[in-house]
Amino acid sequence: MAAFSSSTVISILVFSLMHGAFMGLSASNLYQNFDITWGDSRGKMLHNGELLTLSLDKVSGSGFQSKISYLFGKIDMQLKLVPGNSAGTVTAYYLSSQGPMHDEIDFEFLGNLSGEPYIVHTNVYTQGKGEREQQFYLWFDPTADFHTYSMLWNPQTIVFSVDSTPIREFKNMESIGVPFPKNQPMKLYSSLWNADQWATRGGLVKTDWTQAPFTASYRNFNANPWLSQKLDAASEEKLKWIQRKYMIYNYCTDAKRFPQGFPPECQ
Ligand SMILES: *[C@@H]1O[C@H](CO)[C@@H](O)[C@H](O)[C@H]1NC(C)=O
Fold first, then answer.
1. Which option is the CATH number for 28-257: 2.60.120.200, 2.40.100.10, 3.10.330.10, 3.40.1280.10?
2. What are the GO BP annotations of this UniProt entry (predicted)?
């Protein structure tokens, strides 16, 4: 003990305090971090808060939200999507602030017939305005196992990742007049609901209620206060490759939709 200078002791103390705060933010116990807010007993926390399940039947879907709001951070969670015939179902997983000028960072998983691919739909809303959709196929079956879906959000950038592979980046382009979410704290939300008017093949395939209840599962939540992380050159390359191979819709190339010209962030 005599070998420790008082400054070492202080820095150990500071470190453990910071570590404590950090652990508080990133605790994986779902009871501590979320409330089931919709769907009565269709949303469940199981195994001492290690697993959360949402289900959907003909009467209702279900949903949960985080107890606290985040202003920046890297939010990771593992999801296992509705297996089998999930056509017509949508699992939404997103960060959102409140009010008409809200910001939002969106993942939506559009179900499909057994063996047909899910679509991962993404969007970014800033000050109440979205219309920035990009959609992807995945390179694995998202119903067979848990996979990690992440949203990195800091003052410089927003990155959507799947199993640590970036699929989309929305950079801060305030310098060219594109609003960026940076003042409104957001909560994390997820819900499982019926959207068979549009979800699967544009609404052609309807939900088969004989397969209900439909269930999606969640575990290993983490929220880390990483304020400065950016994609390095190798990750930028990987992102471009993923987009070439798996992106199936990009608002920035949809000329029909923007006859008056593309939004500024598309240039
Ligand atoms: C469902 O499968 C069809 C046929 O393979 C495909 O065109 C479509 O993109 C898939 N996903 C959704 C959500 O419709």
1. 2.60.120.200
2. cell wall organization
